[in-house]
Amino acid sequence: MIDQPEGAELLAVARRALLDTLLPSLPANHAYTALMIANAMAIAGRELQSACNPGYRASDAIQAFYQEIDLAEPPAADESGLAQLIRQRKISQAHQGRLHQLLLETTRMRLQVSNPKYFDH
Prior knowledge:
With 121 residues, the chain is mostly helical. It is 69% helix and 0% strand. Helix 1 runs antiparallel to helix 2 (28-52). The longest helix has 25 residues, at 28-52.
């Protein structure tokens, strides 16, 4: 079998070509657009990497939270299901601290993909 680069690697190579080769030759009024494209490519690459990484995911954290608070009929173990519970005020006051912790955890997970430099501060 031929060892081919995966999607995240292809995006990284294409992004590097955009930044190193194409961007310097673009007119100044197109530089911002090229940088936005490069940023979107970087985010997409990180999303692909995190999707392929069998590590801890937000859905795992949400599912664990549902089990901890012992919901009779939990919604989907994703952010929209959790948002539904919050909007419907189905999470008791006793679990608000744990909910806060979960929201911070899932936000950090998203930031690792969308803006990993945030954690450099």
